[in-house]
Automatic annotation (TrEMBL):
InterPro entries, alphabetized: Alpha/beta_knot_MTases, PUA-like_sf, RsmE, RsmE_MTase_dom, RsmE_PUA-like, tRNA_m1G_MTases_N
Domain Ribosomal RNA small subunit methyltransferase E methyltransferase: start-end pairs: 68-236
Function summary: Specifically methylates the N3 position of the uracil ring of uridine 1498 (m3U1498) in 16S rRNA. Acts on the fully assembled 30S ribosomal subunit.
Listed GO MF terms: methyltransferase activity
Protein name: Ribosomal RNA small subunit methyltransferase E
SUPFAM superfamilies linked to this entry: alpha/beta knot, PUA domain-like
Broad class of the protein's primary localization: cytoplasm
Superkingdom, taxonomy of origin: Bacteria
Reactions the enzyme catalyzes: uridine(1498) in 16S rRNA + S-adenosyl-L-methionine = N(3)-methyluridine(1498) in 16S rRNA + S-adenosyl-L-homocysteine + H(+)
């Protein structure tokens, strides 16, 4: 399995906290053993130099090939936390690069009020999911914020708003110029926005379109928010 360094230099890395405890106590790691460690965005076959319950240190050694993540930034409206957390785990497995939790107009008040207290837990969930799915990079989870603020964080050239839309803009059509165009390799950064249980309001839809987001549909059925996000990312993985 992979570990993700908490502290690193060009040649050494350390794991602390739960990861150190797991290595020392559960796996009974010892100096000289090798593990796969991600440090500074690269995966290494690293050799343990020192073990304690609090910290395990490594010589980083040989660099291994890494997966190339599809740079997808998701604006995910906050929904019931059990569904949200399940979605975060699956989106990490599917390669999301960055997730911005959005306090949407129709996010339930009690969820909006306690969302910022959940961020550390969400970061732990994506860290575990990254390790489990053998990713060599981390998913960035922002602090929860209102939509207008979240929109300013997005710099992807393709911005797709998942919504009930009158128009017949399908995801496959929206992605076509991207995976067939001359810049296909260099022009892959994408952003998706997924609304809360009650959907986006008209005002929010206008804010998106004023900021050059393109409304797209995943078909005639109403999907749960987490299903919509996972379906969209799966289609991107397949096409791009
Ligand atoms: N009635 C709500 C509405 O008006 O949008 C349904 C919301 S749906 C449960 C939650 C979110 O999932 C939506 O805001 C949208 O982002 C996404 N979604 C669900 N089904 C979709 C579909 N067929 N096409 C595009 N997006 C969808």
């Amino acid at each position: 399995r992979r570990f993700i360094a908490d502290i690193f230099t060009d040649t050494t890395a350390s794991l602390t906290g739960e990861q150190a405890h797991h290595l020392a106590r559960v796996l009974r790691a010892q100096s000289g053993q090798q593990y796969d460690v991600v440090a500074n965005g690269f995966l290494h076959r690293a050799t343990i130099t020192r073990v304690s319950d609090e910290e395990v240190t490594f010589d980083l050694g040989e660099q291994l090939e890494t997966d190339s993540a599809l740079p997808v930034h998701l604006l995910l409206a906050i929904i019931k936390f059990d569904h949200y957390e399940w979605g975060l785990e699956k989106l990490t497995e599917l390669g999301a690069a960055r997730i911005t939790p959005v306090i949407a107009r129709r996010t339930e008040k009690h969820l909006a009020a306690s969302a910022s207290k959940r961020v550390e837990r969400w970061r732990r969930i994506v860290l575990e999911s990254a390790k489990q799915s053998r990713r060599s990079d981390l998913v960035e989870i922002d602090e929860p914020m209102p939509l207008a603020q979240a929109l300013k964080l997005v710099d992807a050239p393709h911005k797709l708003l998942l919504a009930e839309t009158e128009e017949d803009n399908t995801l496959a059509n929206a992605l076509k110029p991207q995976h067939e165009g001359p810049d296909a390799e260099h022009n892959r950064a994408l952003a998706f926005a997924v609304g809360p249980e009650g959907g986006w309001t008209q005002d929010e839809m206008k804010l998106f379109t004023d900021n050059e987001w393109k409304p797209i549909t995943l078909g005639p059925r109403i999907l749960r928010a987490e299903t919509a996000a996972i379906a969209a990312l799966s289609v991107c993985n397949a096409l791009l």
